[in-house]
Every structure is written in structure tokens, then in C-alpha cells.
Amino acid sequence: MKTELDRARLAKRNRKSLAATASGLALAMAFPAMAQEADQASVTNTTSEADIIVTGIRGSLQRNLDIKRNASGVVDVISSEDIGKFPDSNVAASLQRLPGVSIQRSGARGEPQGISVRGFGGDFNETLIDGRRLSTASGGRSVDFTTVGADFVGQLAVYKTPEVSLSSSSIGATLDISYPKPFDKMGTRMAFTAAGSVQDEAGKLTPTVGGLFSTTFADDTMGILVNAVYTRRDTQANRVYVSGWQGGLFRECQLTAACTDAQLAVPGDIPGWYQQQYGADQRYTKDERIDGRIAFQWQPSDNVLLTIDDNYSRQKVVTSIDGFGIWFNQGDMRNVELDGNGTAINFLQAGSPTDFTAGTDKNILETNQIGANLKWDATENLQIDADVSYSKSRLNPDGHVSSEGADIGYGGLLGTTLGVRVTGNSNKTFPELTTYGPAGNQALWTDQAILGSHVTVRMAQKNSDEIKQFRLGATWKQDDLTIKLGARYMEDEFSLENRNTFANNYWQAYAGYGAPSGRTSGVPIPASLIQGTINTKGWIPGFSGNLPPVLLNYDARSYSKYLEGLWQGPNTPGYNQGCCENFNGTIDLALDPGSVQNILEKSWSAWVSVNFNTEIAGMPFRFNAGAREEITKVISTGIGRVPTSIVGSAADPTLLTVNFSDSQAVTASSSYSYFLPALDMKLELTDNLHLRFDASRTLTRPRLDYLGPVLNVGAGQRVGALTATGNNPFLKPYLADNFDLGLEWYYQRNSYAAVNLFLKDVSNFIVAGTQRQTINNVIDPTTGQPAIFTVSARVNGPEATVKGVEFAWQHVFGDSGFGFNANATFVETNKPYDRTDLSQSGFAVTGLANSANLVAFYDKNGFEFRTAVNWRDKYLLQFGQAQNNSAFGAEPTFVNSALQIDLSTNIRLNDQFSVFGEALNITNETYSTHGRYSNQLLDVYGYGRRFTAGVRYRF
């Protein structure tokens, strides 16, 4: 029985086996389940020793193709072109080149942050590191790919049909990220990379520096690999936003200039949507990441291989924000003009205050995973595989203040009869103010003489996610029969808490804008706090719409320190009397009891699979059948309380404060178990034409932060926008019955064409059911009636079917060096979004979008050039918006279609040195979202282009 080390030694003598090249060996060790099958297969008969390519674009594509061809199920792979030379600087950016895979971008940075596979987004896809679940402190099941460095990734494998011995089989796909190991290649090797990157809007050159060292010793029975990478990226993005398009019923008089008290006392009957808050801001983000890895391998005998590794990453993201924001209430709107869909495309609101906003968000995400794997060839036919790992991810582990926010401005006597006009579609226009400035005087828009203090928001979000897992498996292999069985135990504990100035109401300590606005609360803003202005000309590329000429630039923390320095006791001028119990001048944070959650999820699983090769009518036939049993127990703990009263604010009529009962601990538990069968069949109609059929049942567990046991009512609320959110510890997982039918044609070396039909019947969809209700019969002081809260709670709901087709074509034009890789995916569902449904529990499948990708390249004589074109059509991202107080339930968020073009090149100067360059988003594409209708813009970001140049060295 050959061990991994035996295969490595054999590779030096025999290059005709698929596992014989050094890169092929790395693949075999990274993906043992596939390697066991690949060992039996030979490279297609068009291959000879002379034309095997080890590195470069074509070499990488051929290795990917070989894995796809020999796998039992539907698997797509991207592999490193050489050590330290992954195709893209971001893992998600590479994944979008695969059929059926598209990306979700971070608007403020333009970075690929998550992926969707066949329309199913991040939480439907399980991400593994060398076969192990990776912890993530976000609370979801997905991984933020901006935290995963790609510089020294070996391979990415996307399992679109389940491998029962690998994971619990997510509905979208299982992604396995493989890192290099010492025994991938015997001896000593090194790789170094250094690059500089600049985003055109930020204009600052930032570095990436990394190195890898690997060596084997003790007669090649031991090996150690160490690598580390430091990356920094600065991005400046401009944004225009509407925090939420709220649905409600307008009164007939609101379509005119005035309403009487009698008219306002009658409920409205004209359905429409209005902007809850409108504004614009500029964001400067500094993203610093450190990735480190150490791996040790020891083979004390031919039959035993021990691997111990540790993966560490630390990402620090600091974002500075300057902008303005204006708040609207439906009942105060007049001269409302509604379009044919009910969207308020023009209106006026008397007395509107204006806020100039500033903020600094600082988040640190630290993740460490350590594991040990033991492979033992017990007999010639039996291999035992034991794996244990521990992973912990922490968001802001030191508990620092993660968000500093400030609002200054004017209102009261200086409030403006203000309006916002919508003039076009959200993919090319943004709404614009029709009037602005104090009392409508646009020339005094940023007059510092009238600026007063308003609110101070400080938050400290602290999360942690801790995963312990153990796996034991056995593989019996004899002739054309392979049997696998095993079991796994996993314990995942997620905790979160938030401390903020809403919990103690200190955010309102100096609210009111001060004397220029006719208020006794609030203080003037000294000119020394204002650092300058930001010009808004040409704010968003390719978009029309006018903004006020400038934004104010000031520091939120300096602002709050200034307010803290004013304290002379409860009679301090400008202090919002009675707002804040026990306030002593320091704008401290307090624990928000409703934010506290601790979710403990324990799961046990067992699996068995049988794989054999035979013939049908003289045609090779591969059959694989397996099953996995999943048992899960959830224990959920939180802190519950109910509102006892609501108090208005004399300083600002738009602010409300909620008082609560005493807090008490709440605990709930639930459990479930599911049987998950899987079947893969492949018939080789000819040597190069393969037919596949796959059927399986898979599940995706609910997000951990959805499993809290309490209803959370925020202490700080707004008039006309009372909200509460609830989670559900009894949520069941999504279940899907999946079917795949594919035809693949490997018509020449490094070239193939494929078509794949897929269908997924999904049940137990988790929906955020929204309803408007009273809570504990507290009175709304603005109406004198029982307060109506918009309550969002998650429940298991309907079923839906998703079906689609994937096309893929990879072609290399002989020995010319030219080639391309193209794919397209078309997907649809029987539950599309219905814009006319005004019920509070509307439902649709999120994430579904047609997409297409093209990578055209040249690779010859040490010169590589690549053009990547990625397109994704409009899709429903989620139910819910930043402000979600609609009378018609959770309003949707759609992402507009986008097309991005990236360029990259690499020149190999000699066997050791190469230089490379990259230009991302060369057409200056933007990221934009909208609400129920296409003219309801929610967000548009202009995140600019990015250029990178660097050198690589290896030996």
C-alpha cells in the first residue's frame, strides 16, 4: 500500500500516473477522497510525458480538469499555478470563475466578500479548511472571504453534489480550501512575494509582503512548512443611500399641501412607499490582514503519516465616515406625488432637521485553527483516518469600542421644508434633495455658526465562535470496490454581546442642536472640531443626481470628548435634562441585555459509502452510493425583558426612549435528526464523453445568531418607527432534495465542454415573518394610543423549487498559448418575488441570478496575460432593509446587475523571479441596491479601480 511519501518518491521516476507530478501529489494529499479514485485513472490518451505542464495557467487548468473528470460527483476545482501564485488575490474572486458560482461584493470596498452557488448564498455553503469546519464570529454559517488570504492557497474544491464522508452537505455547495504541506514536494523550497496596491480614489500605495519556507529532513521522514503574509488595502468609496423604503397608507390630504387635524385622525387608505432616511457619505477604509501557517508532517514508517498544522489570521478593518442624513416620517409628508407603483417620487416635509454625520468603525477579527491528522495503512486494503481540530474566531476580542458615531446639525427653528425627488432607475440615478439648508437657505448649508450637537452613538460589539471537532474514518479498497465509513462529533459555541449608548440613553445627552435652533438642549460646535469639507462633484461614476455641494469632515471621537469636557453637573448648559439616569458627564457604554446570546450546538454524524467500477454494455460505469445521519442538539441562552413605558424627548421630537422591566435569563433547547442519502453515477459513453446523474438530500442549519430565545426591543427608538426583533431557538434546518444530470466532453487535452441540469426541492425555508403589534400594552406618547411595534421574527415556512442549467467551455488553441474558460448559469424558481403581495409574510427564494464568466488568456514562453469578465444579473439579496418599519412586512433588498472586468499579467524572468501586475474594475463599475421597485434606490457605492504590481521569487 503506497503512502503519500511513497507516491512522492515514485513521482520522481514515473510521470505517467495522474498522481505522479509534484502538483498532482499536492492535490492527492489535499483531497484524499478524490485522490483514491484518481490513483486508478490515467491521463487522457492525448497526453504524453513531453506535453505535461506543471506550472502556469494551462497547467493549473489541466489539473482542475483532471479532478473534475475523475470525481464521482460534480466537483469544480481551482488550483495554484505555482507555489505562491494563486490566480487571484482573493479566494472568492477566483471562485466566481467556476460554473454556477457568483460573488457578493462588499459595497464600501468592492471586495468579493461571499459567494453564491447555483443561487444559494453564503449561509447555504459550508467552508472547510483541509476538511475541517472553520469558525466565524459573524454569527452566520458563511465565511467572509476578505479574511481568507489567497497568496499561499494550494487548491479550492467546490463540491456541488455531496461527499458524505467530508461534511454535512450544505444545500449550495461545500467548499474545501487546501493549503500546502511539507510532503507535497521533498527537499527545501522557498517562495516570496512583494507587491504594492493602490486604489485610484484613495491614492495611497499599500503593501503586500509574504514568504513561505518548506523543508524535509531526517531522510525525508519529517517535514515542516511555515508561511506568513501581511496585506494592507486602502479604499475610498462614495455612497448615496436610503436607509429604507417603508410601506404605509397615505391619506388623501397628504397628496395636497395641507391636512386638517380631522383628516389626520382618519387612517389612510392609499398604499405607498416613502424614504425613511436619505443621505450620502464618503468612507475611507484601511484593511490590514496577517495570515500565518505552520504545518509539520512525520512519517515514522511506511504505514503511518501524522500531520499537525495551525492556521492563524487577524484582520483589522478601520473605516472613517463623513456624510449627512435626513429623517422622514410618513405622517408629516405633504404634496406627495406617487408613481404608478405607489413610490413617493416627490414630497415635502416641514421642519425637517439636518444632520451631518461622522463615524469611525474599527473591527478586529482574529481566527485560529489547530488540528492533527493521523493516517494509518492498517493493511494493504484498509486505511484509518483520524482527525481532531480546534478553531476559535473572535470579533473584537479586547472589547474595544468598535463604532464611534456622531450627528451634529440644525433643526427646530431652522428646520427645512425639505423634499426628495426620484427621477429615474436605481442603476443610473440617485434621489436628490429639492430643498436644503437652514430654513431653506442653501447658501448656509454648512454654516458653522448655527451647527449644534445632536446625538453620540458608541458601540462595542464582541462575538466569539468556538468549534471543537473530531472525525474517525475508515476506507476499505480492493480492486474496483471502495467502502468508506466513519463518524464525527462537532461542538460549536457562539456568543455575542453589544454594549452601546442606547442601552443607557446617553446617546441623547446633548441632543437638540442648541440655541441657534431655538432649543435649550444641545451646544454649539466649535470651529476647531471641523477639519474641512468634502466636495461632492461627480460623486458616483455613471450616475446622475445632484447632492448639496459639500460634506463636513470631523472626528466622532473628538466630538464626544468635547462634550464630555463640558460637564459641570446636572445643570450643565446644553445638557438634555432628565434624559439619562446616573449620567456623570462621561458618555459611557452600557450592556444591551437583548443583545446577549449564547448558542451551543452539538452535532453527531455517521456515514457510509460504497463505490465500485464496472461496465455496462462495454462502457465504464462508476457507481457511488452513500448515506449520512445527522443528529443535532441546540441549547440557547439569552436575557429577556419587556418594555414598561415609552418617553418622548423634549430635545428632539423624533427621539423616543423605552423603559424596561428587570432582566432575567431565558434558556431554551431543541433537537433534530435527519437521514441524508446520496447517489452518484457516471457512464463513460466514450473515452472522452461522460454522462453523470446525481441524487441526494442535503441540509443547511440555521444561522447561529437566529437561534436566540428572546424578543429584543431596542431602548433607543424613533417616532413612527418602533421596532422589535425576535429569534427562534426551535428553528429546523433547510432540507433539499437535489438532482443533477450532466454531460461532459473532454475533446482534447486541456479542453472540454459541459452542460449540467440541476433541480433542488427545498423545504423549511426560514423567513422573517413581520407583523405590527403591541407589546405589554405600553403607550406611544406621540399618539396617546398603545404603541404599535413592527416585530420581525424568524420561522420555518414554505417550500420552493430551484432549477437551472450550467454551461462550461474550456479551450486551449493548440500550442499557440491562447485559450479561454467560459461558463454561464441560468436559474429560476417557482417562488419568485411578487411585488404586488402586501402581506406581512411575503416569501421568495433569495440569491437567484443568471450569471456568466469569461477568462481569456495567453500563456507561453514565460509570459501570461489574463482578462476576466464577470457578469451577474439582478437578484433578491434578502428580506429586510437598514430601516425596516413597513406596514407590508419585511421589505426586500435587490442587488442591481453588474459587469466587472479585471486584467492581470505575469512575466517569468527566469526560473526563480517573476513580476506581475493586476488591474481590477477597469470600467469603474459601481455596486447598487434597490427596494421593492427598481426606482427605490437603497445604496449605491462607487468603489473605484485598483492597481497592483509586484515580484515573486521561488526556489
Automatic annotation (TrEMBL):
Residues 436-922 form the TonB-dependent receptor-like beta-barrel domain. Residues 1-35 form the signal peptide. It is a multi-pass membrane protein. It is found in: Cell outer membrane. Keywords: Cell outer membrane, Membrane, Receptor, Signal, TonB box, Transmembrane, Transmembrane beta strand, Transport. NCBIfam families: TonB-Xanth-Caul. This is TonB-dependent receptor. It comes from Sphingobium xenophagum.
